[in-house]
Write a structure and sequence with these properties.
The chain is of the alpha/beta class and 325 residues long. It has helices at residues 4-11, 15-22, 32-45, 50-56, 81-91, 121-130, 153-167, 189-201, 217-230, 242-254, 289-303; strands at 60-67, 95-101, 112-116, 134-137, 147-152, 173-178, 180-182, 185-187, 210-213, 236-239, 264-269, 282-285, 312-316, 318-320. The strands form three sheets. It has a six-stranded parallel beta sheet with strand order 2-1-3-4-5-13, sandwiched between helices. Strands 9-6-10-11-12-14 form a six-stranded mixed beta sheet, with helices on both faces. It has a two-stranded antiparallel sheet with strand order 7-8. Helix 5 links the parallel strand 1 (60-67) and strand 2 (95-101). The mean pLDDT is 86.
């Protein structure tokens, strides 16, 4: 059985810090990153503090469905789901939550739903048949029937472009990414189009620096190899997903392209499908923790019966500055 010392060692903090964080001591001053690291280490090791053990007797157990087929290929894993239980532990002692991934047209017993992306009327009716408590994330719903979290994707891209061109003084930005055409619609189009519009406003768009294929590691590798061979890498490159990034960065490494000396790299991190091999890289996080926190808070409020009026929350994306750009 894991001990508090095991958690401290895994999280690279003191045992005292672990104890105070897990026992929700408001007087301890630690960064959100350290707090998350402690909860994740405890979750991975199966460690439960005495306070959590006592609180478990009074917890309400919920099953929350995540509808992500509009933003994530159905044949890809949603890695983020495995960490959401830790996020719930950090937020509240009231609930113990199991997260399940939903598929359109396949009924599943859930208490509430977090739906990501823009859904058709038929899809919305399907979700409504599963639960009355639905939070739509970046769906642009016009009705006030449902709670919503709107993510300011465009502002995130503007922030990234300004950082690269105005702050870092790179002379140009290119793109390596993919598009997936599936029964749920096209995935991956908006990120490339938004970057193109921003560069066109500055007179810096160059079609030769945009390389688009499939959303896969293999495609990212092939596109990066071709860009290197053709000499069509910009000083800074946005990699359109974590899968594409894995292949592109492998190609850069293989071809001796140094990051960030030869090319600066930013990873467009949508819903995670892979555990990142470059955790210290510069990322444009489209669904950071606070997006999930707002969605969960809205869902808990609706499920607890405390609120019947629909609420819309606007949140920004997050440009995480790392060592690749």
């Amino acid at each position: 059985m894991a001990t508090i010392k095991d958690v401290a060692q895994a999280a690279q903090v003191s045992a005292a810090a672990v104890s105070r964080v897990l026992n929700k001591d408001d007087n301890i001053s630690v960064s959100p990153e350290v707090r998350a690291r402690i909860f994740q280490a405890a979750h991975a090791l199966g460690y439960v503090s005495p306070r959590q053990r006592r609180a478990a007797e009074y917890k309400t157990h919920l099953v929350i469905g995540v509808a992500d087929w509009r933003i994530l290929r159905p044949d890809r894993h949603n890695v983020r789901l495995s960490t959401l239980s830790c996020l719930v532990q950090m937020m509240t002692d009231r609930y113990e939550v199991t997260f399940v991934r939903l598929a359109f047209g396949q009924p599943q017993k859930v208490d509430g739903i977090i739906a990501l992306g823009v859904f058709s009327e038929e899809e919305t009716d399907f979700l409504r048949s599963l639960s009355f408590a639905i939070v739509f994330v970046n769906a642009g719903q016009q009705s006030y029937e449902f709670d919503q979290v709107q993510v300011d994707f465009d502002r995130g891209q503007e922030q990234m472009v300004s950082y690269l061109l105005d702050h870092k003084r790179y002379t140009g930005i290119g793109y390596i990414g993919g598009i997936y055409d599936g029964p749920g619609g096209r995935i991956g189009v908006h990120r490339a189009q938004a970057l193109r519009r921003l560069l066109e406003k500055r007179g810096l768009y160059d079609q030769r620096l945009f390389h688009i294929g499939e959303i896969s590691r293999e495609s990212g590798y092939a596109l990066a190899r071709r860009a290197i061979e053709e000499g069509t890498l910009a000083e800074a490159m946005l990699l359109g997903s974590d899968e594409v990034a894995e292949g592109a960065l492998e190609a850069f490494q293989e071809q001796g392209v140094r990051i960030p000396k030869d090319v600066a790299v930013i990873i467009y991190q949508d819903i995670q499908t892979l555990e990142s091999k470059w955790p210290t890289g510069t990322c444009l996080e489209m669904y950071p923790d606070y997006v999930w926190e707002h969605a969960l808070e809205l869902l808990f409020g609706r499920l607890s019966g405390k609120r019947s009026q629909a609420v819309t929350v606007m949140v920004p994306t997050h440009l995480k500055i790392g060592d690749t750009a």
